[in-house]
Predict the structure.
Amino acid sequence: MKKNKNLITVFPMITVINCPESKAKGRLYDLLGERFSTIYGDYDITSESIDWIMSNGSVHSSSEFIFNNLALIKFLANNAIDDLKERNEEDVETVFDKIRTWGYRKGIIQNSNKEKQFIKLMEEVGELSSAIQKNNDAELKDAIGDIIVVLTLLAEMEVYQVESCIESAYKEIKDRTGSIENGVFVKTV
């Protein structure tokens, strides 16, 4: 069966299922796996989102069933956070995944902001500076790791993956030409 996205109309605040309530669940199942974009982010039509929509949506007219986009996205985000909190560390694939899971479990990603994380980053850079000045290898390693943790959490809070940030930076520098001057690479302009 061909999926027809016209069964749903997405507005900035609400989504309208273009059918009466009695047929809404069937229409949603016709769109299973589809993704819709709102001003609050994207949502996928899944069994979980269908159950939420049917429980929390409302009749707008005899031919329209509506739901609040922000409320659905918050529900799905909270469930994703709960899933992350319940993951075992062995189930997490990369160290970056482990850092993000830890950040959600501790409430950092949900309850902090980029300004606070920037302050934390500067604190860790200060520790890096101190380790370099003292020529302390253990503190140097710890400070570099702490900086990477803060940057990983900051990227997640801003809806980036730190891996894609690193990849983007590498693509920008990989073909640069230049020379080492006073121990620092200076790119050719």
